[in-house]
Design a protein that fits this description.
One of its GO terms (molecular function) is nucleic acid binding. The protein has about 575 residues and is an alpha/beta fold. The protein contains 18 helices and 21 strands.
C-alpha cells in the first residue's frame, strides 16, 4: 500500500536566536517557535530548564515520609514495573539509597507472566509479613486503590510515583506523585516513570542532609533517565528533551559495568551513542527480560559492579531478545501455513497462548503488510487474559472496527489509532473473536485509509552535506512528537543497489551528487533475502535497478561503522519517479 506524501507548510521563524532557515523550519514544524523554547532545545541549561520538583503535587509529603523512614531505619521497598521504564526507575532509587549508605531497602519487580501489573493484595500482604514499613512505587501504583487500602489496614504506608493517567479516585497513599494528576500544576505532564523517580531524588537531595552525597551527584543518574525516556516512547519535548540530552552525555561517560558490557556485546561505540541506539538496541534488550523471562535480570544488569555477572546477564538478555525475534518468524510461518491453500478472510486472526506479548505488534504489522488484510494477533498473559495487537490492511480504521465489534462490552479494553491498536478480552470470549470481527468488518463502511508521511523540506543530493547534518544534530534528541527531520528528494538516479545482513533483509542504494560523490541510503528489514530489483522488497511497484530514478523520503544520519564517520540517508519511503 503506497503512502501519501505531504510537505509540511508551517511558517518558519528564521529570526529566532539567529537560526538558519532550515533549523527554523524544522523547529516550527514541531511547534517550537518562541525564543525560550528554542533556547531549551538548542542550548539547554540544567538549572534553568528543569523544573523545581516541589512544584509537583504531593512531592513535599512524599519526601517527608521517606526522610522519616530513613531516620527511623525503617525497611523500605521499591516496587517497580517490568519494562524498560520501570526497571531504570527502580535502579534510580536504589542507586540513591546506596549512595547515601542506606541499607534497609529492597527492590521488587513483579513477574510479567504470573503477576498483575502494579501492586497486588497478595504482594502487599507478603511485604507486610516481611516487616516492610514503606513502599515506594515507580512507574506504577496510581490505579492500585484496593491494594493500597489493604496496605493501610496492615500498617504499611505507600508513596506512589507514577506517570500513567490516574483514575478519577486516587489511591489512599501518603503521597501520589504524578504530573498527570488533574489537580497537579506541574509545568510538564509527560515525564517517563523514571523521570518522576529522578525528580523525587532531586527533591530528597534538596531536603535531606546527606553528608555522603555531593550536590549535583544526581546528574549521574541521567543515563538511566535517558534510556527510559526513549524506550518508553514518551514525548521528546520540554523537560523530557532536556533530561535526555544531558542523559546521552552521561551515557557516553557512564561507568555502569552492566551497560558497558551491553555496549560491547552490541558493538556500540560509547562515544557515538545517540537516542536511536537506545530505541533500537539497548531498550529492546532491557525489555526482553520482562517479556521473555523476568525483568529482574535487566535490573541486576544496571546495578551490578561485577564484570563476570554483567557478561552473563548480557548474554542472557541477548538470547532472550533473539528468542523474541525468532518468535516473530514463527508467527509469520504459522500464518503462511494456515493461508497457503485457503482463502484469506477479510480479517486475519491468529494467536497462541504461549506467544510473547512483546512480539505481537511487529508480527501483526508484518502479516498485514504481506496479506493486505486487517490483522489481529493475540496471546495470553500470566493472569489468563487475552491481549493482542492489530494493524489495518488499509480499508478500515481498526479502532472503529473494535468499537463496531462491541467496544468495551466485548473487549476488556481497546485503543490505538486508525492503523494500529491494541486490545484485551477475557479468555471466555476468545472463540467469538474472529467471527465477531468479521461481522463487524462486513457491516462497517469501507473507506480507504491512506497512511501519510510528512516531509520537512525538499532538497537535492548536493544538500546532503556535513553542514546540513550538523544543523539536524544540534536539534537532537528526537523522538515522539519531535521526530527526526524527513527530507524529500525527487528524481534521484540509483547508481547501485544491494541487500546486506546475515540473511539479506536490509537494502542499500547508492546515489551520486553533482561532484560524483557517492551517497549511500539504507533501509533495514526491507527485503526478503537477496535483493530482486523489482520484487521481494517493501516498496510495491518500484524497480531498484541501477539507472532507474526514484523519489525518496529520508533522514540524514551519521554512520560510525568501524569508527569511520560516514554521511548517509536512512530511507523512510520510496516511489518510482514519474
Amino acid at each position: 500500500m503506497q503512502k501519501r506524501w505531504l510537505l509540511k507548510q508551517t511558517t518558519s521563524h528564521s529570526d529566532l536566536a539567529g537560526l538558519t532557515e532550515l533549523s527554523a523550519t524544522i523547529l516550527a514544524n514541531r511547534g517550537v517557535t518562541s525564543g525560550l523554547e528554542v533556547a531549551a532545545t538548542i542550548s539547554p541549561d540544567y538549572a534553568e530548564h528543569l523544573h523545581d520538583p516541589f512544584l509537583m503535587k504531593d512531592m513535599a509529603g512524599g519526601v517527608k515520609r521517606i526522610l522519616q523512614a530513613i531516620k527511623k531505619q525503617e525497611k523500605i521497598l521499591i516496587f517497580g514495573d517490568y519494562d524498560a521504564d520501570g526497571v531504570p526507575a527502580s535502579a534510580v532509587l536504589a542507586c540513591f539509597f546506596k549512595q547515601i549508605g542506606y541499607e534497609h531497602f529492597d527492590v521488587y519487580i513483579p513477574d510479567r507472566h504470573n503477576e498483575q501489573y502494579g501492586l497486588s493484595v497478595a504482594s502487599i500482604e507478603k511485604f507486610a509479613g516481611e516487616g516492610v514499613k514503606l513502599i515506594i512505587t515507580v512507574d506504577c501504583g496510581v490505579s492500585n486503590i484496593k491494594e493500597i487500602k489493604r496496605a493501610g489496614e496492615l500498617d504499611l504506608e505507600v508513596v506512589v510515583t507514577d506517570h500513567h493517567l490516574p483514575p478519577a479516585e486516587l489511591p489512599p497513599a501518603v503521597a501520589v506523585i504524578n504530573p498527570k494528576r488533574l489537580d497537579d500544576t506541574y509545568p510538564y505532564k509527560f515525564l517517563a516513570g523514571t523521570g518522576v523517580a529522578f525528580k523525587l531524588v532531586q527533591a530528597l537531595m534538596a531536603k535531606g542532609k546527606f553528608t555522603a552525597i555531593k550536590p549535583g551527584w544526581e546528574k549521574w543518574l541521567l543515563d538511566l533517565v535517558a534510556i527510559a525516556t526513549v524506550a518508553d516512547m514518551v514525548p521528546m519535548t520540554g523537560e523530557n528533551k532536556v533530561l535526555t540530552r544531558f542523559g546521552l552525555l552521561v551515557l557516553k561517560k557512564t561507568r555502569r559495568v552492566g551497560l558497558l558490557a551491553l555496549f560491547k556485546a552490541l558493538k556500540l561505540k560509547q562515544q557515538f551513542l545517540v537516542e536511536e541506539d537506545i530505541g533500537f538496541m539497548i531498550g529492546p534488550r532491557l525489555n526482553s527480560a520482562g517479556r521473555m523471562s523476568h525483568a529482574s535480570q535487566a535490573y541486576f544488569l544496571l546495578m551490578t559492579d561485577n564484570d563476570t555477572e554483567a557478561r552473563t546477564i548480557t548474554t542472557h538478555l541477548e538470547e532472550k531478545n533473539q528468542e523474541r525475534r525468532s518468535q516473530v518468524t514463527d508467527i509469520l510461518a504459522e500464518a503462511d501455513l494456515k493461508y497457503q491453500a485457503a482463502e484469506i478472510p477479510a480479517v486475519v486472526v491468529l494467536g497462541r497462548t504461549e506467544w510473547g506479548l512483546g512480539v505481537l505488534g511487529l508480527a501483526a504489522a508484518r502479516i498485514s503488510e504481506k496479506y493486505k488484510r486487517t490483522t489481529f494477533i493475540w496471546a495470553k498473559n500470566g493472569n489468563g487474559e487475552i491481549k493482542g495487537s492489530c494493524r489495518s490492511g488499509g480499508e478500515v480504521n481498526v479502532v472503529d472496527l473494535m468499537a463496531a465489534a462491541g467496544g468495551r462490552e466485548f473487549f476488556s479494553d481497546f485503543g490505538g489509532h486508525a492503523f494500529a491498536g491494541g486490545f484485551s478480552l477475557p479468555e471466555s470470549r476468545l472463540e467469538q473473536l474472529e467471527e465477531t470481527l468479521l461481522k463487524a468488518y462486513e457491516d462497517l463502511p469501507k473507506t480507504e485509509v491512506i497512511e501519510e508521511e510528512e516531509a520537512d523540506a525538499k532538497i537535492g543530493l548536493d544538500d546532503i552535506t556535513w553542514a546540513t547534518f550538523s544543523e539536524v544534530e544540534k536539534l537532537a534528541p528526537y523522538g515522539l512528537e519531535f521526530p527526526k527531520p524527513v527530507f524529500w528528494l525527487e528524481g534521484v538516479e540509483i547508481v547501485a543497489a544491494k541487500s546486506f545482513g546475515k540473511t539479506g533483509g536490509h537494502v542499500e542504494l547508492v546515489f551520486k551528487n553533482s561532484k560524483g560523490e557517492s551517497i549511500p541510503a539504507i533501509a533495514f528489514f526491507s527485503c526478503e533475502g537477496e535483493l530482486a530489483y523489482d520484487q521481494g522488497h517493501i516498496w510495491l511497484g518500484v524497480n531498484l535497478a541501477p539507472g532507474r530514478r526514484v523519489d525518496v523520503l529520508a533522514n540524514i544520519e551519521k554512520s560510525t561503522f568501524k569508527y569511520k564517520p560516514e554521511l548517509r540517508l536512512r530511507i523512510v519511503d520510496l516511489k518510482q519517479s514519474i
